[in-house]
Amino acid sequence: MPRPARRTRSRKRINKALPGGRQGTHYKSEGASYAVCRLCSKPLAGIPQLSLSKIRKFNRTKRRIQRMYGGQLCHNCLRTALKQAARTISLA
After folding, report:
1. Residues 52, 35 contacting (CB under 8 angstroms)
2. How confident is the model at residue 81, as a pLDDT?
């Protein structure tokens, strides 16, 4: 019987021949999705499309983009948000 974590139909099953002529089942892990912008839902550039456990092993500089809201907003949404914030600042 498979481990409880493998008892789901969301994992693809692959039958493999094992040494000794037996058949075994390998469970294929799901592919990671893109990191997306919170406002426009476009994929973020500069962030790898890997699982979270693999991204955690990277340096911090490779995990996210070094700007305000890096890893959360795309560059176009950040630009419009900064413009909007500058317009609402009162000079009085």
Report:
1. no
2. 94
- Name the helix (H) or strand (E) containing 75: helix 75-88
Query: What's the pTM value of the predicted model, to 2 decimals?
Result: 0.64
Could you tell me which of 37, 42, 28, 31 has the C-alpha nearest to residue 70?
37
CB atoms within 10 A of CB 73: 20
CB neighbour list of residue 52: distance below 8 Å, 6 or more residues apart: 32
Residue boundaries of the structural domains of the chain: 1-30, 32-86
The helix (H) or strand (E) run that includes residue 15 is: strand 12-17
Output the DSSP codes for 45-70.
Answer: TTS----HHHHTTS-HHHHS-SSTTT
